[in-house]
Amino acid sequence: MKMSIDSTVELLNGVAMPRLGLGVWRTQEGEEVERAVGAALQAGYRSIDTASMYGNEAGVGRAVRDSGVPREQVFVTTKVWNDQQGYDNTLRAFEQSAANLGLGHVDLYLIHWPVKGKYKDTYRALEELYEQGRVRAIGVSNFLEHHLEDLMGACRIKPMVNQVEMHPLLTRKKLLMFCRKEGIQLESWRPLMQGNLDLPLLQELSRKYGKTPAQIVIRWHLQLGVVTIPKSVTESRIRENAGVFDFELEPEDMNRIDELNENRRFGADPDNFDF
């Protein structure tokens, strides 16, 4: 599978979404996030993933504007937080996020978590924003198969992306197959398992391919057709995480990584969260 840092996937509506992006969860507003986003854009990244809950949308917007990279070449994602959900609340939350970013349009707007009794009304607001041309694509985050089925039974526009926790210890095979069948692009957050990369197999493959364990894991995601957004605030690590386009994992090694699955989460369970 020939890929480069410019490689994209085509969403259901034809919009091109970069396969690799930078996540900015827990990246401080101000200098830290501006430096990280600037370093990523300089290194060739063209996708930045933020959220209203992260509190750093304004810094992301400044960094994109100051980067010298044309706005239309940068794919910016943000998300509506749980206490902002519901139809009217979501429309207001979007206006605040759009103002914080200061980038004109938003490329991808997601529901952050499937808040019971609210996510359908929240998604109606996303459909409205999409039809107004305020966002280029809409989708969800942390939705399981039953959440997606419930939503698709009520929505007019199928979600284009589902962003979930996914990594070698949580391979999400059933969800991946479901999303493929429905044409929903799966995107992985926390792909590097909070740095828990000292698994013997990853160390072995690191030696075999002459790549870091992080690069092995990112490449595994990409070869599965999953968009991924590793987070870092260190310029050298941001560049290292992008050094995954000059090698390819052999099919048997892809399968061996799949077999590491323990259904182990580092984040919350979408069926049981209290925030």
Automatic annotation (TrEMBL):
Protein origin, superkingdom: Bacteria
Binding site for substrate: 112
Matches recorded under InterPro entries: AKR, AKR5G, Aldo/ket_reductase_CS, NAD(P)_OxRdtase_dom_sf, NADP_OxRdtase_dom
Residue ranges annotated for the NADP-dependent oxidoreductase domain, each copy included: 19-262
UniProt KW keywords: NADP, Oxidoreductase
Site location (Lowers pKa of active site Tyr): 79
Name of this chain's protein: Aldo/keto reductase
Organism field: Cohnella pontilimi
Species classification: Bacteria, Bacillati, Bacillota, Bacilli, Bacillales
